Amino acid sequence: MDKFNTLTGIAAPMPLVNIDTDMIIPKQFLKTIKRSGLGKNLFDEMRFTQDGAEIPDFVLNQPAYRNAEIIIAGDNFGCGSSREHAPWALLDFGIRCVISTSFADIFFNNCFKNGILPITLPEDQVAILMEDARKGANARITVDLENQVITASDGKQFPFEIDAFKKHCLLNGLDDIGLTLEKVSAIDAFEGKAKTLYPWA
Prior knowledge:
The chain is an alpha/beta fold.
């Protein structure tokens, strides 16, 4: 998993509330167990018509936001079914951070396990960042995880809270497998001792 420290990028404004995981990645794309390749189908039913043509009004189809790395979202982002494909699709598209007033719990935790930083802020602060994002590609937002602060394009700063363990994992690029591998010496020692004590096992 890639480390997350400081991100400066284009933020796409998505004020719609209750964006669920089926909107993020529709069910017909859940057949794969690969984490790559899902970005092309991110928000598929919002981005494309049934014949595959782009819907020009959708924010990620607009030239200013095609390379967005941050989403400023409406309330209750990631609600619905608990599909890990949702953060996979966001990450594969290039989204590393989502800022909202609230998230569904399972989606929130899945983001951290896949290198995406979900940030919860008060409604008035999200509204300010939403307006800043509407300025387009020239209005870049900086997210500093180490110092836990978001800096808008005009320099206004918004501190945010984050669980210390989740912060550690993102800063060091540690998913569940990475966390386990940190203990590989202790695991090897335990297995070696077990083989001596229980050779029949």
